[in-house]
Design brief:
Helices cover 50% and strands 9% of the residues. The protein is mainly alpha-helical and 109 residues long. It has two domains: 47 residues; 50 residues, no CATH class. Strands 1-2 form a two-stranded antiparallel ribbon. Strand 1 and strand 2 form a beta hairpin. The protein is elongated, with a radius of gyration of 19 Å. 6% of the residues are buried.
Length: 109
């Protein structure tokens, strides 16, 4: 599809509001709008050069940041983790590892 300059600018402006409201990332906006990610980022960086995003190190991409375990949760042999407003409780490190794998897999869908 060929976009006019007005359409490109409109997408960039809508994406900026989308990100500022915390609804998702620029990449998520592009995916939802049906615009190829690389194409959208070219438009974005042309209009807002300060939005250049540093590439994450491999260690940052491999894990999902869940925050700290809940207060006293490790002392009772369980882990209470907050994830996007949800509280998830697991009773062993094996269960925690499975939870993290599931979250990582879901984040790439």
């Amino acid at each position: 599809m060929v976009y006019t300059e007005e359409e490109k600018l409109a997408h960039v402006e809508r994406a900026k509001v989308y990100v500022e409201k915390g609804e998702g990332s620029y990449t998520a906006y592009a995916r939802e709008a049906g615009v190829p990610r690389t194409t959208f980022h070219k438009w974005l960086h042309r209009v807002y050069p300060e939005t250049r995003i540093k590439k994450a190190r491999a260690s940052e991409r491999s894990l999902v940041n869940l925050g700290k375990p809940g207060k006293d949760s490790t002392a009772r042999g369980r882990f209470l983790v907050e994830y996007y407003g949800s509280k998830i409780e697991v009773s062993s490190t094996g269960d925690l590892a499975e939870l993290l794998k599931g979250i990582k897999k879901a984040s790439f869908i």
